[in-house]
Write a structure and sequence with these properties.
Elements: E1 3-8, H1 14-24, E2 30-35, H2 40-49, H3 55-62, H4 64-70, E3 80-86, H5 93-105, E4 107-108, E5 113-118, E6 141-143, H6 150-160, H7 174-193, H8 201-204, H9 209-223, E7 225-227, H10 231-239, H11 242-250
Parallel strand pairs: 1-2, 1-3, 3-5
Antiparallel strand pairs: 4-5, 6-7
Helix pairs in contact: 3-4, 5-9, 7-10
């Protein structure tokens, strides 16, 4: 059976999102969740210090919980590794250059892992006005100087829009994920191509993390704004093949 390793930055939100992803999309896979708990720069530097060391060894060193989770696993038993981190702490131009290095380094799920960035942070997944495939994207820009207030902004928005249930990830169903993913894919299309329409699979498949990063950096340089995007929705777009994604694009559950 296929084993997928997810490495996440935070202990509160991300593990619950991954549980929901498994329930809806990955229920035939073995999912292993690991909390890294610090900057991905730290992980990168540890690998670069000793390029012969396996990423699993670094992850085991992070905590006794990680050692317990990974104690019987070898790298050869894991089919792919995906990492989910926030852009939030990388909002100066200098650190954005470093972030590009990380995206280019962690670009292979069969090696040290494939990195997905949420802009500005994980709460972008539920930053939405209403669960409709045509939800308005006019409020999708965010100024990175205001990142400290982003969590509160999303929480207040959910209350105002009567969508507080989106904070309960275990209750997400096909319709919830379909709306959230389509919304993020439309925002990606707006960022990259200046169009608010839902992109076709052929277009969506070109929205790599590197392409997204470069377009976000252009916006940061212009006015310190980004387009709020969830790394989890772009993981779904990458992980599943054309038939599955086209079904999601065409259907509204």
């Amino acid at each position: 059976m296929e084993v997928i390793l997810f490495v996440v930055e935070g202990a509160k939100e991300e593990p619950k999102i991954i549980d929901s992803l498994k329930n809806i999309f990955l229920n035939d896979k073995v999912i292993v969740k690991i909390l890294y708990g610090t900057s991905i720069y730290h992980l990168y530097s540890k690998i670069r210090e000793d390029e012969d060391i396996e990423i699993l060894e670094i992850l085991r060193e992070m905590s006794t919980e990680n050692r317990e989770i990974l104690k019987n696993l070898k790298r050869s038993q894991i089919s792919s590794i995906f990492l989910f981190f926030d852009q939030d702490s990388h909002n100066s131009n200098a650190s954005e250059t470093k972030l590009e290095t990380l995206i280019n380094f962690f670009d292979n799920e069969y090696g040290n892992g494939k990195l997905y960035i949420s802009y500005p942070m994980v709460e972008a997944l539920r930053d939405i006005e209403h669960l409709d495939e045509n939800s308005d994207i006019s409020l999708c820009e965010w100024n990175i100087d205001e990142n400290r207030s982003y969590k509160k902004y999303v929480a207040d928005r959910l209350i105002r829009c009567k969508l507080t249930r989106l904070s309960i990830y275990k209750d997400y169903n096909d319709k919830t994920w379909n709306c959230i993913n389509k919304y993020n894919w439309r925002k990606g299309n707006f960022l990259i191509r200046g169009e608010s329409l839902l992109p076709s699979y052929e277009i969506l498949s070109t929205f790599s993390q590197n392409v997204i990063f470069k377009k976000q950096l252009d916006k940061i340089k212009q006015n310190k704004n980004i387009i709020t995007l969830s790394g989890f929705s772009f993981f779904v777009a990458f992980y599943f093949k054309k038939e599955k994604i086209e079904e999601m694009i065409q259907n509204f559950y």
